[in-house]
Amino acid sequence: MAAYFLGRAGRGVIALFVVSIVAFLLLHATPGDPIITMLGPDATPQMARDMRHRLGLDLPLSSQYLAWIRQLLRGDLGVSIRTGQPVLTLIVGRLPTTASLAVLATLVSLLLGVGLGIVAAANRGRLWDQAATVAAVLGISLPNFFVGLLLMILFSVLLRWLPISGPPVDLLRAPAESLRTLLLPTLALGASYAALVARMTRSSLVEVLSAEYIRTAYAKGVHPSRVLLRHALRNASIPVLTTVAINFAYLLGGTIIIEQIFALPGVGRLLLQGVEQRDYPIIQGIVLLMSAAFVCVNMLADFLFGVIDPRIRLGKAGE
């Protein structure tokens, strides 16, 4: 099991290295000049050359990349071209909003998705199964920004029950106000991911429920709910956990549109501002951190798989 995790960690480091190269090259290949964006159209050529030299943007790309890697190894993500603030400080200040949104949306998707999947699998071929399938397909088909706009119009504009946006999120100091602010974007994000979890839960449960040991449990007189929840759901949970882990990793870096719609001061909105302002250090720092989060979440999911399925711990998952 240790060798398995070391192998996964090694592949994760290689993936991050490749992501850093791709992100660096793509940013510098896109049109536009961050110096002109920062200084404005009235800047003289000499001012632009001086600023470019001060920031090291006049060096060859290879030298710029190596300098950035050396900074990363020291735990330094660089300084924002636009504001002059450390990139790590800017990201940390926005991270609570994005992390809270991702965690809450994951919980919503897990509760709704697993619930719908269990109902559909337990009533396979019946009305409840068809209703759950329709709900899942509808959730997958509707983009989260469209769902967010519908929720905003209904609950904020028409009913005036919830705010469209609110103060910066702080679940520790102001949990009630933060939850009110995050409720609509959480539902908008969680709905589509709940549909994916529901589909995966249903398909996994249907497969497990046809196994021989499940029929044996029924033949011994075990209560159907006990068979479904204790025996079948545990063995069907690995594909579901895989879906939830991937969804959570995507949510950490995929809340850009929702944060923009609801005016939430999160990492996704900071990334969008960095793209608009051609702020290389901010874009590179966020992309790298989100990639690292994706790798770490997947490694955590692998650890949970080993806890749930002893065959993975013993390296016998394929047997």
Describe the protein's architecture and organization:
The chain is mainly alpha-helical. It has a domain at 96-278: Orthogonal Bundle (MetI-like fold), CATH 1.10.3720. It has 15 helices and no strands. It has helices at 2-29, 34-39, 45-55, 61-73, 87-122, 127-141, 144-158, 175-209, 212-219, 224-235, 237-253, 256-261, 267-276, 280-308, 310-313. Helix 1 (2-29) packs antiparallel against helix 14, helix 8 (175-209) runs antiparallel to helix 11 (237-253) and helix 13 packs antiparallel against helix 14. It is globular, with a radius of gyration of 24 Å. The two termini are 16 Å apart. The model has no long low-confidence stretch (mean pLDDT 81).
Q: Could you report the average pLDDT, rounded to the nearest whole number?
A: 81
Say what the CATH topology of the domain at 96-278 is: MetI-like fold
* Helical content class: over 70%
Number of strands: 0
- Termini separation comes to 16 Å
Low-confidence stretches: none
